Amino acid sequence: MSGQKITTILFDCDNTLVLSEELAFEGCADLINQICQKHGIKLEKPFTGETLIIEFVGQNFRGMLKTLQERYNFTVTPEEEEDYVKQEEDIVIAKIKEKAQPCKGVDAELEKLAASGKYKMAVVSSSALRRVKASIEKVGQDKYFGNDVFSAATSLPKPTSKPDPAIYLHAIKTLGVKAEECITIEDSKSGSLSGSRAGITVVGYNGPYPDDKKDEMKQVLTDAGCKVVMEDWSEFPAILEKIQAGKI
Description:
Number of strands: 6
Strand order of the largest sheet: 3-2-1-4-5-6
Strand content: 5-15%
CATH topology of the largest domain: Rossmann fold
Radius of gyration: 18 Å
Helix content: 40-55%
């Protein structure tokens, strides 16, 4: 296997850089339940943050709304959707500003990558740009990325969500790089599919999952196109070296 000259490292945000996924799903569960009630959907049990994570991890709020409408056969108007999206953003951003923490060990790796001067670094997320920026600003990671923060919900002419590769294709075009010179780190099936469909080498990260789910998620991430899966950010330097040497 020939090596890759890596010039650019892309990072998913939620539960890859910042432990924001649980906060976000906790914040939007009540809103999802209100939407279902308004449209006459009889749920067996109301959604909770935990059940939303199980069903919708890696999707943004628009993606969740689309899935719910398909599953329960109801329709929200474009005006309603925009209103719901704004409500959800406000709820989640408030929680992130209050409670968000960085993923374990990631700050040390970001600092080393930045100090090396070898790589462009960018964030590529499904979440709304306001939310992504609030997350990385809260934990002090914004200094590593500048304006190179891309949102499938905000940065594209037509909002979408991973696993659509559109946001990755947009990011690499904007950065002026090719897919083969990039790697990305993802913690979800939808994110891994998005990156791999864009032709980017994907490194999986299952660190934030409970111990009894780590093996299951390692397989999910591998099946979604990840070349390797790490459990801790301390593994990243060796993985990067192996990718560049053609050993992964």
